[in-house]
Amino acid sequence: MFVDAVIETDRLRIRPYQLKDVDSLYEVVSEPNFYQYVPEEVPTHDDVRKIVEWSMDCNLKNTKENIIKFNLAIIDKEYDELIGYCGLGPFDLNKNKVELYFGLSEQYRGMGLAKEAASAVLNYGFNVIGLNEMVSTVHPDNIASVKILESLGFVYFNTLKDLPKNEAYFEGHNYYVIEK
Fold first, then answer.
1. Which residue numbers delimit the N-acetyltransferase domain (predicted)?
2. pTM given for the model
3. What is the pLDDT of residue 169?
4. pLDDT grade for 81, boundaries at 50, 70 and 90
5. What count of other Cβ atoms lies within 10 Å of the Cβ of residue 179?
6. Which of 8, 38, 113, 174 is the most exposed place for a label (fewest CB within 10 A)?
7. What are phi and psi of 28, to 5 degrees?
8. Do the Cβ atoms of 133 and 177 come closer than 8 Å?
9. Which of 35, 169, 48, 10 is nearest to 106 (CA)?
10. What is the mean pLDDT of the chain?
């Protein structure tokens, strides 16, 4: 369910990270605007390698009841190329909630691929893993991601504000919820 997961769509193969993904994943996440709306620093190549290794370890430990992190590579089937990531993991502000997230290389945006990947992972979470609810956060200026979430059936719940200092990077983000 986690280690050997392969989620197929018409144009994409979505699968757990592998060591061979490090260079391609680093190329994607180090694009100039990739982290424009993400409340994290751009990782170094070594950071990406550690994330991939940690993700592989998480998949050995993930269970339906406790998803540590389920990081997935988005592969363009036509070119067999890693073009982004998506996945499920505990929501930083409430570890009892499972968050859906996704990010795509700039050259592949605007083609419906992010929605295709997010939809596939959403369905996998509900129908294979057995989740009953998922959440997602998005910066309100990230109109493309807002449209994707809303088109998938996510409902705006609130705007995150007055957060503790250690979680301030989510300040002003919109919080969305979807139930099975």
1. 12-176
2. 0.94
3. 83
4. very high
5. 11
6. 8
7. -65, -55
8. yes
9. 35
10. 95
| Cα 15-17-22 angle, rounded to 5 deg | 135
DSSP-derived 3-state class of residue 174? strand
Confidence band, pLDDT 50/70/90 cuts, at residue 37: confident
Encoded tokens for 53: 């290794």
Report the alpha-carbon distance of residue 16 to residue 74 in Å, rounded.
9
Comparing CA positions, the residue from 146, 126, 144, 127 lying closest to residue 136 is: 146
* % pLDDT > 70, the chain: 99
Q: 128: alpha, beta or left, given left = phi > 0 and alpha = psi -120 to 50?
A: alpha
Q: Cα–Cα distance between 163 and 24 in angstroms, integer?
A: 35
**Which residue reads 């691929």 in tokens?**
113
Quickly list DSSP for 79-118: TTEEEEEEEEEEETTEEEEEEEEEEE-GGGTTSSHHHHHH
Spatial CA neighbour of 176 closest among 148, 168, 163 = 148
Residue 171 CA to residue 69 CA, distance in Å, equals 23
Predicted confidence at residue 107, as pLDDT, reads 94
Query: What is 7-179's CATH topology?
Result: Aminopeptidase (3.40.630)
Residues 82 and 110: their CA atoms lie apart, in Å, by 17
